[in-house]
Amino acid sequence: MHLHKYERIWLLFGTGSLVVFLLIIGFGAFYKGAQPPSEKITIDPQNVEAQESFKKENLGLTKVEDGKYIVNVVASAFNYDLGKDEEGSNVKKIRIPKGSTVLFQVTSTDVVHGFELAGTNVNMMVEPGYISSYETELNETGEYTLVCNEYCGTGHHLMFAEVEVYE
Ligand code: CUA
Fold this sequence. Notes:
The chain has one helix at 5-30; strands spanning 41-42, 60-65, 68-76, 79-81, 93-97, 100-108, 113-117, 123-126, 130-138, 142-147, 160-166. The protein is α+β, with helices and mostly antiparallel strands. The chain folds into two domains: 1-32; 41-166, Immunoglobulin-like, CATH 2.60.40.420. The strands form two sheets. Strands 1, 2, 3, 4, 6 and 9 form a six-stranded mixed beta sheet that branches. The chain has a five-stranded mixed beta sheet with strand order 5-11-10-7-8, with no helix packed on it. The longest helix has 26 residues, at 5-30. It is elongated, with a radius of gyration of 23 Å. The protein starts with a helix and ends with a strand. The protein binds dinuclear copper ion (CUA). Subunits I and II form the functional core of the enzyme complex. Electrons originating in cytochrome c are transferred via heme a and Cu(A) to the binuclear center formed by heme a3 and Cu(B). Its main location: other. The chain crosses the membrane at residues 9-31. Keywords: Copper, Membrane, Metal-binding, Transmembrane, Transmembrane helix.
């Protein structure tokens, strides 16, 4: 088969560009590994309680000082574990005074979940093996829904909780 000189040049140029682009994409996608963008702290998903923050008694809302709170959450299909209340029932709603700085620390024991506090700037991906954390200030009163925005299985739509910011 006879190839015209220009045809050969363009073929080489095309193939060369393709190789360069694939290298750039491959490098860009994988050189930092696959992990949640917010944090690089690792944890054993089979034993999250080994980490102080995720011990049963430390789950849910903890007051650090006036206007400063920590919320520790263990996500699993299909629930956010926010600890237990005084009666021993699972906490489904937490209440935080307006203007507080809140540090959310979340991990998963099974699959990838989402952690979005709808209407705020809290929106994280939660991956087993990692701790996702984000600190924010809650300055608007209201009822916020905490939702899982990563499809995680048949009960995905049942995975939510409530956060109330009060005056
Ligand atoms: Cu958890 Cu969707």
